[in-house]
Each structure stands twice: as structure tokens, then as C-alpha cells.
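Late entry, adenosine-5'-diphosphate complex.
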Amino acid sequence: MKVTETQILESLKQIVDPDLKKDIVSLGFVKDLKIEDRSISFKINLTTPACPLKSEFKKKAEEIIKRTFPEIETVNVEITAEVKKAERPEGFLEVLPSAKNIVAVGSGKGGVGKSTVAVNLATALSVLGGKVGLLDADIYGPSVSMMLKTSHKPIVVGDKIVPLKSNGIFYVSMGFLIEEETPIIWRGPLVSRAIEQLISDVDWPELDYLIVDLPPGTGDAQLTICQRVPVTGAVIVSTPNDVALSTAKRGLVMFEKMNVPILGIIENMSYFVCPHCGKESEIFTKGMAEKEAEKIGVSCLGKIPIEGKIAESGERGIPIVNLYPSSETAKAFIKAAESLAQEISKINLKG
Ligand code: ADP
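Prediction complete; structure with ligand written out below:
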């Protein structure tokens, strides 16, 4: 008897996405199912290319088909991904229209590694197959241009700024619009104008994820950006010590007040791995941010170690995810990017 489409779909319902908590058939992931003689092919179309379960899904699907339908000789499963566009409140449809999801990266205070995390998250999402943009809105120290090594400024075509491309990601920086030497007191009005320009006048290509590196703290600039931009969710970067954590909590409250969902916390400079013996040491209290996150009911997306090579990576203008891809730190960023993408998928599924 010939195997039917219904039978195949029924058997594939055994595969459940642990994050979205539904089976891949009900989620509508199975596409282009073809049954020809003794061969079957189909696609599993995920909600993000950054899904860590890609190869597991493929393996499971092949196993299930072979086990359930022994008469089938070849099974061809292709894993694809299509990132969903986050729903936007009315009035925001035309703001950064080509960005499907906008992620604000904030911190309670400066120096916790917010920009380093933003750049490496963006790079990691791109390495995993996403189309990624990075908007450096850090007025106090727009450091993204340095971390991505481009000395030239972007060109303007018509009345739009064309983003630069480096390490697979498109980016623009506040540094393009405000000279770093401009004294902070002059920056106020310039900053509002520059923020407005960065939001309205950049010709972004189609993007799955636009990461916005916010200024540290919870001042006017952060509020303006969150009011003007349809942010899908926010990531808070904190080091695992009391001062950083208590200021990080202020950041959380700010996002909540602005109705921006919290995607999670990233604990940076979490621990130290000895480059000689590989032993882990805890400089602060490793996992402190994770515990706080649990208490407040948000996810801990990742723990990034203290890494000497991050300074080198900054100087060379190559994010550590690309400079030393097999390092523990690069792997930690990839894992954090996967968790971030999953949190976004969850929000979009609910929406
Ligand atoms: P912020 O954006 O929060 O002000 P930065 O990303 O500019 O912080 O980082 C501040 C300094 O800390 C930089 O010199 C950066 O190279 C360093 N740094 C950030 N994260 C790490 C890390 N995990 N290990 C070692 N140094 C780090």
C-alpha cells in the first residue's frame, strides 16, 4: 500500500520543539512534502537559522520515517529557516521597515561589556545564517566602528545613509554622525538629531535581526530610542557583582515601563578560564546574574567568560566569534545568540 501524506505528517508529530512546546507539524514547519515511489523528501522550515536543534530535527525525522515506513528507501530532509517578522503596534509600521526583529542591548552602567556583547551577538547570529544589522546608538562611546575595523565613513545615496558591512553584518554608528571629540555638553541636541537620523535615514537591507547597542543607563536617550523604535525585546548585559546587578535591574524596570519585553540577561565576565591549564576560576560569583534573572523571572541567555583575547579582537577589529571561533568565549556567544533567537521565536509565536 502506498504511504500517504497524512501518515507521514502523523508520524512527524512525534518531533516536538522543546522551546515552542508544540510538534513540528502543528507548528507548520513541514513543507514541500513529496512522495515518489520509495522516496520521500520534505523541508523542515524553522523560525530561525540559529536553532541549535537543526541537526537533531533532521536526524530524528529521518529515523522516524525509516522506522515507521520500512518500504521507503530514501528520505531527504532539508532544514531551512524563515525568521518571522515581529508584530508591531499601530503607527510603527514604517519605522525601520526592513528589520523583522529589533533587539535593544542595554546595561545599567558603562564598562560591563555591553558593546562587546552587542557586536559578538550580531556576528554570532550572522555566522548561524541570519541577516543581521547593528545600530550603534551608544552616544557616550560609539565603539562599534573600532570593534568592526572600518576607518571610512558610510556613503549617502540620495538622502539615505548606506550601512557599512563588516564580518557579515551591516552597521551604522552614532560615531559616523557625531565626532568623538565633540564635548559631551554639546552633544545633547546633536544627539537627538543623530538618533533621529539613525532611525529614519538609513537604507537597511532586509534584516532578520537588527541589534541596537543602547547607551548605558536609563536616561533620555534610551527612552527616546525605545519610544521611537518598535523594539521586539531587550537584552540586559551585566557583570556578576552587586553594583552592576542592581543597576541592571533599573534597566529592566525601564524596559518594562516602556512595554518592551525582556528577552533575557547576559552575564559578561562571568568566570575566567586559565589559558594554560583550562581550569575555570570564578572572579566574581559565577552565576549571580543567572540567579537574579531566575528571581525576576527572565531567562539567562548566556554566561561569557573574561577573555584576554577580547582586547586583541577589539584592536584588530574582528569580533572574537570570528577571530577565534573555537575559543570557549566564541562558543559562549554562539550559544547566547541561539538562546536569543529562540526567545524571539517564542515572542513571535505568541504574537
Ligand atoms: P560597555 O559597552 O559596557 O561600556 P565595552 O564593550 O566597551 O563595555 O567593554 C569595556 C571593556 O571591557 C573593553 O575594553 C572590552 O574589551 C572589555 N571586555 C568586555 N567584555 C570582556 C570580556 N568578556 N573579557 C575581557 N574583557 C572584556
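The first strand starts at residue 16 and ends at 17. Will revisit in the morning.
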